[in-house]
Amino acid sequence: MTDTHRKKHPETLIVPTVIAAKAAEWGLETQKVAAADAHRVLEALVAEFGVEGAVVALNHQGFRGEAYKYLLVPLCAEAVARRARAAVRRSP
């Protein structure tokens, strides 16, 4: 079901689109950093808003949020674990 829906309704991926639009302004190294930073942004947002928040956000973007839970659940678990480790490193 989801695979068919994705094939019928392909969406242009936002990160490559934005990076391509900025290519004339950004050097190749900045483009690579921006691509990696997009993953950090995703990690922080998933940790902050959780699986259900991400599902709602995907729905608001016109995607079927439930279809992404297979990925959101482990992403959220890892993001929350990293947040906890970062908190321990920051504490005196």
How would you describe the overall organization of this protein?
The chain has 92 residues and is an all-alpha fold. The chain has one domain. Helices cover 76% and strands 0% of the residues. The protein has four helices and no strands. Helix 2 packs antiparallel against helix 3 and helix 3 crosses helix 4. The chain is flat and about 50 Å long. The mean pLDDT is 91.
Key attributes of the depicted protein:
92 residues, mainly alpha
Order of helices and strands: HHHH
In angstroms, what separates the terminal alpha carbons? 50 Å
Mean pLDDT: 91
β-sheet strand percentage: under 5%
What structural class do helix, strand and pairing data support?
Answer: mainly alpha
Q: Radius of gyration in whole Å, from Cα?
A: 16 Å
Summed up, what is this model?
The protein has 92 residues and is mainly alpha-helical. It has 4 helices and no strands. The protein has one domain.
Task: Present the secondary structure layout.
Blueprint: H1 2-8, H2 14-21, H3 28-60, H4 69-90
